[in-house]
Design goal:
The structure is a single chain. The chain is mainly alpha-helical. It has one domain (7-74): Arc Repressor Mutant, subunit A. It is 45% helix and 5% strand. The chain has helices at 7-19, 34-42, 60-74, and strands at residues 22-23, 27-28. Strands 1-2 form a two-stranded antiparallel sheet. Strand 1 and strand 2 (27-28) form a beta hairpin. The longest helix is centred in the C-terminal third of the chain and has 15 residues, at 60-74. The radius of gyration is 15 Å and the shape is flat. The termini are close together.
C-alpha cells in the first residue's frame, strides 16, 4: 500500500507525546508514557508492557485500530479511493 504520509503531523504528534513526560522543566523521556501504555493494555490493544523488552506487542484489534488511527491522522488523501 502506497500512502502519502503527512510527516509534519507525525512530528507534531511525537512532540505532543513528549510533553506527556516532561520533567525538570524541559526534559522528556524518549519512550512512551507508562500510564498511556497501561491504558492501551487495559483496553486490549497491546500485550502487557511491563517486561524487559523495549517493544510492545499489538493485539489483532490493536493493530487494526493503530492502522485506522494512523491513516485518520497522518495520511494525506489524494482524492482516490482504495
Amino acid at each position: 500500500m502506497n500512502m502519502n504520509i503527512d510527516t509534519a503531523a507525525i512530528d507534531d504528534a511525537v512532540l505532543a507525546l513528549l510533553y506527556l513526560t516532561v520533567h525538570d522543566h524541559n526534559r522528556a523521556w524518549k519512550s512512551m508514557d507508562w500510564d498511556a501504555l497501561s491504558r492501551l493494555h487495559d483496553r486490549g490493544f497491546i500485550g502487557d508492557p511491563v517486561n524487559k523488552a523495549k517493544s510492545v506487542i499489538l493485539t489483532e484489534e490493536g493493530l487494526r485500530e493503530a492502522e485506522r488511527l494512523f491513516k485518520q491522522h497522518f495520511v494525506i488523501s489524494d482524492g482516490k479511493t482504495e
